[in-house]
Write a structure and sequence with these properties.
By secondary structure, the protein is α/β, with parallel strands linked by helices. It has four helices and twelve strands, in the order ββαββαβββαββαβββ. It binds zinc ion. Zinc ion (ZN) binds next to helix 3.
């Protein structure tokens, strides 16, 4: 996904603002609302902070608040929206039963503002949406997928198959790495370090805004192939 971050210096706060436009056979306002609740809750519970250099040259910690909204639109409407989009707040996600990759994905490259998600991923009742949101803001999977030393819940960007403490496994009773002995994704939580990583190396404009992610502006068909527009 993509998003726009802006500085509220009166509140010592950075707000990450985005709008997810859902379309496809399974896109309903109810599901859309659940998905953005999952994302907002996960990212706000992490209570991320970043250092902002103020006009007087001092660095101050600013809390990072996520304000993600949703809307549902028809497939016809989404073509018009996508073709004219220049705003990094806007993301377009198709929700279907299945696709050619057999999994929910965000489009093109890390940071793209389009996706094709599967209803079978328990969207809005799991951690899939929050994980995909992290990818779209430029986060990759951690290099270390053996987190057995970690007391805290696995980070949101931990991929399926990650080794974890037994209490975070599908089956706590089995040996790590055996069947059922990997991370159950529901235990993933956004951690403050992941929020810092979203902003690493980024520079806000003079007006205090920052575009995050990439506009790929594609529309997907039912099984996840992109339509290419003739311009
Ligand atoms: Zn991933």
């Amino acid at each position: 996904m993509s998003a726009v971050a802006f500085i509220r210096s009166d509140l010592n706060e950075v707000v990450v603002s985005a709008k997810l436009w859902f379309y496809g056979s399974f896109a309903t306002p109810d599901l859309a609302g659940k998905i953005v609740d999952e994302i907002n809750n996960q990212y706000n519970e992490a209570q991320g902070r970043i250092l902002i250099r103020e006009a007087n040259g001092n660095q101050s910690p600013y809390s990072v608040r996520f304000d993600i909204e949703s809307a549902t639109v028809s497939v016809d409407e989404v073509f018009n929206l996508v073709q004219s989009n220049t705003d990094y707040r806007n993301n377009y996600i198709r929700i279907e039963q299945d696709n050619f990759l057999k999994r929910s994905f965000m489009g093109n490259t890390l940071g793209g503002n389009v996706g094709h998600w599967l209803i079978s991923d328990n969207l809005g009742e799991s951690t899939t949406a929050a994980h995909e949101f992290g990818h779209s803001l430029g986060l990759d999977h951690p290099a270390d997928v053996d987190l057995r030393d970690r007391e805290l819940p696995p980070p949101i960007m931990a991929p399926r198959g990650t080794l974890v403490r037994s209490r975070f496994q599908w089956n706590p009773a089995v040996i790590a790495g055996e069947f059922g002995g990997t991370m159950k994704p529901i235990y993933r939580k956004v951690c403050a370090e992941e929020i810092e990583m979203i902003f690493a190396g980024q520079v806000f404009s003079e007006e205090g805004t920052l575009n995050l992610g990439i506009l790929s502006n594609l529309v997907y068909d039912e099984v996840g192939n992109p339509y290419y527009f003739i311009v």
